[in-house]
């Protein structure tokens, strides 16, 4: 039975990687996955709720190629062209239903074109939410970025994007479903 479960898990993992790779290649910005850099030293504060603290150890954002990254210090939001990213992220409540970070939004102003544009940096608040519980981990399914302070011309004050997630566990069937 364990061999069957292992083979099934390996097949599911392989198909997930292929599916996520196909999604990462899509050029639609609103559906773009994120590229994240691990958050070692990113200022993550520990959750006080023991259940949240336990979940935090297995909670991730999936980056542009589907790799899990916990409490990332940086995130590429526009994977197709790299024209928008978040840096210097300091997280609170990682592993809770919503985690919040402060950091810097870096966006290409695309003036006169994106190829010739200049990066504009502004302070930002980041919220990840819509957590999806998988068999062995959890992933956030939505990222909302809000500019803090004056909003530069051509930039939106608030942006929300879907994120790639793990396959959810069917609550009726439980783990291994």
Give me the secondary-structure topology:
Blueprint: H1 2-25, E1 35-37, H2 50-56, E2 59-62, E3 68-69, E4 74-76, E5 84-92, E6 99-108, E7 119-133, E8 138-147, E9 158-162
Parallel strand pairs: 2-8
Antiparallel strand pairs: 1-4, 2-3, 4-5, 5-6, 6-7, 7-8, 8-9
Keywords: Signal
Signal peptide: 1-24
Region (Disordered): 155-177
How does this model look, in words?
Residues 1-24 form the signal peptide. Keywords: Signal. This protein is an alpha+beta fold and 177 residues long. It has one domain. Helices cover 18% and strands 34% of the residues. The chain is built from two helices and nine strands, in the order H-E-H-E-E-E-E-E-E-E-E. The protein has helices at residues 2-25, 50-56; strands at 35-37, 59-62, 68-69, 74-76, 84-92, 99-108, 119-133, 138-147, 158-162. Strands 1, 2, 3, 4, 5, 6, 7, 8 and 9 form a nine-stranded mixed sheet that branches. A hairpin with a 4-residue loop joins strand 7 and strand 8. The radius of gyration is 17 Å and the shape is elongated. The protein starts with a helix and ends in a 15-residue tail after the last strand. Mean pLDDT is 78; it is low at 1-35 and 38-43.
């Amino acid at each position: 039975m364990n061999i069957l479960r292992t083979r099934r898990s390996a097949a599911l993992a392989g198909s997930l990687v292929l599916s996520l790779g196909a999604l990462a290649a899509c050029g639609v910005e609103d559906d773009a996955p994120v590229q994240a850099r691990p958050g070692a030293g990113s200022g993550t504060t520990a959750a006080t709720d023991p259940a949240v603290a336990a979940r935090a150890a297995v909670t991730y954002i999936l980056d542009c190629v589907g790799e899990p990254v916990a409490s990332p210090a940086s995130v590429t939001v526009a994977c197709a062209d790299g024209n928008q990213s978040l840096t210097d992220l300091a997280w609170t409540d990682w592993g809770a239903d919503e985690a919040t970070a402060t950091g810097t939004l870096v966006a290409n102003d695309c003036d006169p074109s994106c190829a010739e544009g200049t990066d504009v940096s502004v302070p930002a608040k980041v919220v990840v939410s819509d957590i999806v519980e998988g068999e062995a981990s959890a992933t956030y399914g939505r990222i909302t970025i809000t500019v803090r302070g004056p909003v530069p011309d051509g930039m939106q004050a608030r942006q929300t994007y879907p994120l790639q997630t793990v396959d959810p566990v069917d609550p009726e069937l439980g783990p291994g479903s």
